[in-house]
Write a structure and sequence with these properties.
Layout (H helix, E strand, L loop, with lengths): L2 E6 L13 E8 L7 E7 L3 E7 L2 E6 L6 E7 L5 E7 L10 E6 L2 E6 L4 E6 H6 L8 E2 L7 E5 L2 E5 L11 E4 L21 E6 L4 E6 L4 E6 L5 E7 L27 E7 L3 E7 L5 E7 L4 E6 L3 E8 L2 E7 L3 E8 L4
Parallel strand pairs: 2-18
Antiparallel strand pairs: 1-2, 3-25, 4-5, 5-6, 6-7, 8-9, 9-10, 10-11, 12-13, 13-14, 15-16, 16-17, 17-18, 19-20, 20-21, 21-22, 23-24, 24-25
Length: 330
């Protein structure tokens, strides 16, 4: 049984715009790690991310490692079924991609050519001659997800400033889009994973720069709940090259953060990195309650949920592998 200690901060020193927010700090100790089953193993660095969607393995390749961006394989025999989107400057191709997955869909964004495509894996597998539509994008963001026909929810790159909403909802053409108040485009100061629950009208943001999860209402875009994983101030970090304490490495602390995440109607699965650089999978419900957590072996670059399993794309210096964990055994 996992040990979870939760303390509710009753007296908050927050700005007026954040009054009424539920703030919780969780001290997390992992449960016994379930035995993982390796579904796919390849040499390190070939695939950037791998998801499991509708019983298919969806590999996102790095440029130079494959002629195509996406490769679909059957879970049953790992045979290649279809390749999608060539790496090229042609109208049907892409050059430099970022991606996210939600439900049965993958969103692929070409950062250079400013276009993206939303691919429904179920539909592609049913109709393998289906053409992939490329949609022009009139603005830049480091994270976006489709939330309906013609609408996307995307990270506001200026939201690290006070009183800026964390996300916007708009069409690809930019209808309803606003830049930050001073009109600047900010890069590499904010990143993370956006998750969307249509039934509850709720958005969650997992921060890449801190061990925090935020919950928002979709309509008012107001922060409703902030959950933090408690920092361990006694941990000393060893330099991985010298094996000695490195006083210049984040003040002797590794950067705690959430690397990626996914969700379904009832669960959030988040890849969390602790002070020692160890990766964990944390499971939350949409009320923000931590329900389970366990250690995994490599750096987790992608997470998928299907039935009672969580799938992790774990990368290390020698090999990368897709691992299945049975949540019923936690």
């Amino acid at each position: 049984m996992m040990k979870i200690y939760v303390s509710l901060l009753l007296s908050l020193t927050l700005s007026a715009c954040t009054s009424g927010i539920v703030v919780r700090t969780i001290k997390y100790l992992p449960s016994e790690m379930p035995e993982g089953q390796t579904i796919l193993q390849v040499p390190h660095g070939q695939r950037e991310k791998v998801y499991v969607i509708e019983d298919n393995i969806c590999s996102i390749y790095e440029r130079g490692m494959n002629d195509y961006v996406i490769e679909l394989m059957s879970m049953s025999d790992t045979l290649i079924v279809k390749r999608l989107i060539p790496y090229s400057a042609e109208p049907d191709g892409m050059l430099l991609v970022d991606c996210s997955a939600s439900g049965s869909t993958i969103l692929i964004e070409d950062i250079i050519q400013k276009k993206f495509s939303v691919i429904d894996v179920r539909e592609v597998m049913d109709d393998r001659q289906q053409e992939i539509e490329m949609i022009p994008l009139s603005f830049f963001t480091q994270e976006m997800i489709p939330i309906g026909v013609g609408k996307i929810l995307y990270l506001n790159q200026g939201s690290f400033r006070s009183n800026e909403p964390r996300f916007f909802i708009t069409s690809p053409e930019g209808d309803g889009h606003r830049l930050s108040k001073n009109g600047q485009k900010s890069l590499n100061v904010l990143d993370g994973a956006l998750l969307y629950n249509s039934a509850r009208g709720c958005v969650s943001f997992l921060s890449l720069y801190s061990p925090e999860i935020e919950f928002y209402g979709v309509r008012n875009k107001r922060l409703q709940q902030l959950i933090s994983i408690e920092r361990n101030e006694d941990v000393e970090v060893l330099d991985i090259f010298t094996g000695v304490i490195n006083e210049y490495l984040f003040k002797n602390k590794a950067p705690q953060c959430f690397m990626c995440g996914t969700s379904d109607a009832v669960r959030i699965a988040a890849a969390y990195r602790d002070e020692l650089g160890q990766s964990h999978i944390l499971l939350f419900d949409w009320d923000g309650n931590l329900t389970a957590g366990f250690v995994v072996h490599g750096d987790v670059w992608a997470v998928s949920l299907q039935d009672n399993f969580v799938y992790c794309w774990e990368r290390d210096k020698d090999k990368d592998r897709l691992v299945q964990y049975d949540l019923s055994k936690i």
